[in-house]
């Protein structure tokens, strides 16, 4: 890309917003020109706004530290200064949906970490290696919104980023029933052990809303484009339990799957080994190579050892073995605030930029 695109980050002071800024530092295609948050942070230098609550292991990026935080609700002003925005605001679903649509109508594409538009039929919910073709629905969305360049694209819930990529290369075997139990890090709740000491030496067997998202969102990702909208897939049936565990980062999933046509172990391993999506084919800056990594060691993947595979964008898999109730079972792991949140959104933006949906104003 000859000239970097100007980017704004909405919700920049929260944990996902912080992750956006850390990932975008020195990005070859994008330059953060603006940070925005709630009215209570507006007017402060970014370094001041996150003082005492910066949660990343790396320092606040120097360029971002010096920026003055804008009010995310000041749509016209922000839209006039950037080519597109990433959204990670902490607002109600209704407020978020309106804000994102306001930016899109102001001809500023929105790539969102939020859930407000995940079920809007003409909004693509993307894992770029899996459903890159869903970007085509943006033309219908633009017609609905009356825009030429503005649109909304979203990434799915962090809980599905580990097991959906592992199942996807096996779709032609007809997965019918999937049971999954996810063991989810505290950063998924925007917490650290310093801010949530109750999680030390503790497990909480409930995460509000997470199981429904884990069961339903994959069906949109595997859906088909029809008449300007995405129609959800009918199968597989997914049953999920989502558990909060005392881990800083990384969501681990234990998966059980039954197929219409049971594949052999060697067939599954070959599919995982050979699979690559459009980000890998295009050589996008954040695309992990390989996308999927299988460990023969029964003790892997481990959260601490393997969550950073592919700079946090890769998916790791292990313990593939026959199951007495289902056909096969395995475990898999993703980094929840990189692949599962900000990093997945950055990769989505890269794909949409490469395909001409995001351009300089």
Describe the structure.
There is one protein chain. The chain has 361 residues and is of the alpha/beta class. It folds into 2 domains: 5-157 and 342-354, Rossmann fold (3-Layer(aba) Sandwich), CATH 3.40.50.720; 159-335, 2-Layer Sandwich (Dihydrodipicolinate Reductase, domain 2). It is 28% helix and 22% strand. Strands 3-2-1-4-5-6 form a 6-stranded parallel sheet, with helices on both faces. It has a 6-stranded mixed sheet with strand order 10-7-11-14-13-12. A hairpin with a 2-residue loop joins strand 8 (224-226) and strand 9. Helix 1 (15-24) crosses helix 13 (338-354). It is globular and about 60 Å long.
Topology at a glance:
Elements: E1 5-10, H1 15-24, E2 30-37, H2 46-49, H3 62-65, E3 70-71, H4 75-79, E4 84-87, H5 93-105, E5 110-112, H6 128-131, H7 138-145, E6 152-154, H8 163-167, E7 175-184, H9 210-221, E8 224-226, E9 229-231, E10 237-244, E11 251-259, H10 265-274, H11 278-282, E12 292-295, H12 303-306, E13 315-322, E14 328-334, H13 338-354
Parallel strand pairs: 1-2, 1-4, 2-3, 4-5, 5-6, 7-10, 12-13
Antiparallel strand pairs: 7-11, 8-9, 11-14, 13-14
Helix pairs in contact: 1-13
